[in-house]
Structure formats: structure tokens, C-alpha cells
Here is the input.
Amino acid sequence: MKRITIAPRINYKEKIQDLGFYFDDNYWLENAYYEFSKKQIEEFEKATNICYQMYVNAVEYIIKNDLWDELHIPRYIVPTLINSWERDELSLYGRFDFTFVNDQIKLLEFNADTPTSLFEASVVQWEWKEELFPKNDQFNSLHEALIQSWVDILKEYDSERVDFCCISDNLEDYTTTSYILSTAAEAGLNTAIYDIEDIDCQDDLFYNKSDQHIDFLFKLYPYEWMFNEEFGKSIPNCKTTFIEPLWKAIMSNKYMLVILSKLFPTSPYILKTDTNPLISGNYCKKPIYSREGANVSLYKNGILDCETDGEYGEEGFIYQELVEIEPQNGKYPIVGSWVIGGESCGIGIRETDCKITNNMSYFIPHIITNDIKDLKQIN
Here is the structure.
């Protein structure tokens, strides 16, 4: 894994906007890329599939041992979550955040519920690669995998319609939701998108803006928010199937890292994680519920090294073994490895000027090397 500095494409902002990408100018800078060997990509693919299976085992452990209070999941929703799991409701996506430590892949967390960075990982970086490095490959079959997953969902549920909702005045959420909707449309589904506040609840049933009952709902909105709102109280009786499925509320919980540390202490991917500060004094303190790197603190020898602010932490924190991310040209990269339909199928890299990946991080594209001598260098 190597960071290469290059000059941005001429008019690259217009080019990515033509794809429908209108995020902050400082998010996609296009002044660098990462290159991976084929062997490194194979290792990420292997780690992703193994970690996903470990998460599956951890969900079974939580259900068997009734650990809902530790996850701060409301008891009223538990039977519905278990039913969703036992019915094996289909999942669309999830993203593992990995880093390298002494050439060993380490799992930082799993973003199992919301699809941050999916559009840029799937479409934007592929178009970049096709223009600049057409002879090189990229670990990226995300678009095709999303369409196939929708085909599978269409077949499984025998439905031709999915409603999509998000917070529509959030540009990133709306753009990402619109992109995922486009893949569902390519799979042959009828679709519509609206703000989540436009969903009408009548007698615990959910209706869209056309006053149709919502049979299948894609929502870019965290489950932990829903469960603590009046909206959530109707979920057990609403007769709506959600995408992501309800059981993803378990996997998206950071207490899962504690469970993984307990169940798989010898796994090379798993970092020691506990509900109390680690004796070594070297740990990352994370809220059980949080988004975009908020309220994360890094400690070295028991002394605070750096932290981010935010509004999370009410449910408590977990303490994960601290890893020293090796900077690349002064940047700290995190590899987001995607699972689509339960299988590893692509990565995207985000990097920061500090040690905590947050909502100010940059997205950096990547390629897979053929022969280092054949790489096209751009000046």
C-alpha cells in the first residue's frame, strides 16, 4: 500500500459533478491515489469475508445470551430483531474499516447500517481509474454487486417496488440514497424517494406520500435514532420490511467489538476491546453509538493524545487497543472494505491530517499494480 502524489485532472470537479457527485470541494481532492499489490487486495478480501462471518457468529452469541442491555437496544424491539435474524432477511451492504499494523490487517469497526462513501467508492473512483489508469485494475465490483443484490431481493420478496427515504436536505445522504435507488431501478424495481419525515404512520402502519402502504423501505437513517423516536415504536407492528434489515441494528453497534474480542481473542484481525480502559493505557475510547468519528479519544500510556467532539456517548463507551496508523505523506489512511450481498467486493480509502477518521476526512481513489515499471505516472 503506497500513496502516490499526482496532479488533478483538468476540470475534474466538473467531471465528478457530471456523475452526480456534489460533495464538499475538500472531500475529493484528486491530488493523490493509493496503489496496492494483487496480494494485498487478496488479503483485504480474505479479511473482509472472515470478519463478516465472525460478526454473524457474534450476533448468534448475543441472541443466545440475551445481551441486549449491554448493547443498549430497547427491549420492545428485541423480538422483532430476533425474528428478522431468524427469517434471514436479506442485507444489501456493509463497510469494514481496516488499517495496517506491521503489514497485518486490523479491524477498527463495522459500519453495518448506513452506506457512507458508497457512491464515491463505486462510481466516482472507477471513472477516475478508467480515465487515468485504463490498463490497471481496481478492487471495485460494487455497482454490479448492488444490482445483483437488488435482483436477489426482488426474487426473495416477490415485490416490484421499494420506497427510499433519507434526510433529504443532507446533500451527502440524498446523493447516496439516490445512487442506491438507481441500482435498484437498474435491477427492475419501481422506486420513489422522499424525506423520512414524509412517512405517515397510521395505526402502526407506514404509508408513503401517495398514501400507499410501504411494503419495503430503504432508509438511510440509523436504527438507534429510530428506536428512540415515536416512529420506532410502530416498527414491531408495521408490516414493513426494511433494507438494511432490522438485524443490522445489532452488527452496527460498537459493543460488538467487545464481543468479538471475547469470542476470537487469537484472531489476527481483532483488537483487544473491553468496557473499561485497558491496563496498558494505550487505547481508543469510542461511544457505543456514534457517527463519523465523533466523540472518539486516543490515549497513550493513559494520557489523552487527541480527540474529537460531538454529541454521542450517553449509552457509554468501549475501549479498543490503540493501533499506530503509519502516516503516508503526512496522511493517516483507513481502508473501507465493502460487503455487498454478504460478499467482499471493493474498497475505498479515506484519510485525515490527524489520527481519527471523521467527517472532515478525504476520499482517495486506488489502483492495483500490474508491474511497478508499467505504472503510468501523471505530472
